[in-house]
Amino acid sequence: MNTAQWLGLFTGVLFGFLLQKGRVLRFDKQVGAMLLTDMTIFKFMLSAILVGMVGILWLSNMEIITLSHKPMNVGAVVIGGALFGAGWAIMGFCPGTSLGALGEGRWHAVFAILGMVAGAALYAELYPFFKSTVLAWKDFGKIGLPEAINISQWIIIPLFWVGTIGLFFWFEKKNL
To answer: Domains of the chain: which residue ranges?
Structure first.
């Protein structure tokens, strides 16, 4: 294995460990998130986004990494988001939590993982059809939020931090 693969393995195991320690692999936390009665998963993910957005943009500005945006395609985002949400609601797992749950020994997570693999295979088979239909809906190109609203990411980041920390305080006040 090369260095990038070792780093990928290390960060994947670390992420799984943090998922487990943050208790976001628990079924009651998953259901609470879907019912908007327990914000543990949202807090976990927003914390990861806060740290990741600074780290990724810092690495990009230092020219250690190169950002490569995927096309912002409305059809793909809407349908992909709906399928992701439906899968999460039906199985009680998102992709990361399903693998983490399997790592904890919850064998029923295998069905969620098999569903993801089957969905990916089905998408690959139907890609020619999607390319001329869903993927042809309003494509904004390879843009990120800074390009979409024409504001520096170093202005967006502090605003997002302030908004997220305010949201965290509100969650705590409401015992979410």
So the answer is: 3-173
